[in-house]
Write a sequence for this structure.
């Protein structure tokens, strides 16, 4: 698309403004019948680039879904969230306000971020660099996960990198840093902490706030 298409104006900006890009909107030339057939909601301010897939019963608040992304059924993409290029979002996922789901283009990567079914991603969290969040996992507000982020289970001491286990409940945390050359304690490094794990039945019957209470 970037190599084949020339730059062109894209209409529809606020106040009659235009954009200037190579990839048109997914909704270019869509009418009422096309939207009804697609079966999802796109609130004013939602931007979806062509080649992204949006399944039925998805709700798109003012957000950005990049090219090649896949958003499955009954998922909510809340306000000011970004779903990066080729990211895969499962069914019944809640992507809260201001969340960033990384793509594969900048920087160029082979593995997309995958958020499996029934996950909850808390506000202002970031999941990038090909991290996989397994089914039913819950990320509290402000959890940052990249390919090198350590995910520590506080009950078992087990450490995960690049993958969140099924039905794990994560909060932001830190790990002690290495001592400095002068012997003083070094700065802590960021991590994510698994505070509990729940089964499918508990996850379906328990509110997110209750799960995150310690």
């Amino acid at each position: 698309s970037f190599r084949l298409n020339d730059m062109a104006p894209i209409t529809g900006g606020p106040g009659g403004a235009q954009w200037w890009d190579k990839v048109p909107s997914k909704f270019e030339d869509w009418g009422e019948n096309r939207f009804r057939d697609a079966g999802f909601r796109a609130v004013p301010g939602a931007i979806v680039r062509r080649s992204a897939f949006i399944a039925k019963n998805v709700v798109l608040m003012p957000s950005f879904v990049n090219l090649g992304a896949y958003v499955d059924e009954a998922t909510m993409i809340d306000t000011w969230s970004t779903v990066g290029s080729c990211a895969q979002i499962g069914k019944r996922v809640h992507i809260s306000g201001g969340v960033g789901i990384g793509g594969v283009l900048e920087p160029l990567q082979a593995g997309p971020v995958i958020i499996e079914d029934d996950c909850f991603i808390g506000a202002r969290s970031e999941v990038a660099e090909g991290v996989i969040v397994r089914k039913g996992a819950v990320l509290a507000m402000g959890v940052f996960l990249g390919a090198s982020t350590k995910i520590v289970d506080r009950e078992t001491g087990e450490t995960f990198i690049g993958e969140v286990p099924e039905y794990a409940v994560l909060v932001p945390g830190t790990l002690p840093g290495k001592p400095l050359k002068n012997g003083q304690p070094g700065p802590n490094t960021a991590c994510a902490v698994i505070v509990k794990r729940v089964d499918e039945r508990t996850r379906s019957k328990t509110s997110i706030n209750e799960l995150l209470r310690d």
About this structure: The first strand starts at residue 8 and ends at 10. Residues 32-38 form the longest helix (7 residues). The mean pLDDT is 93. The chain has three helices and 24 strands.
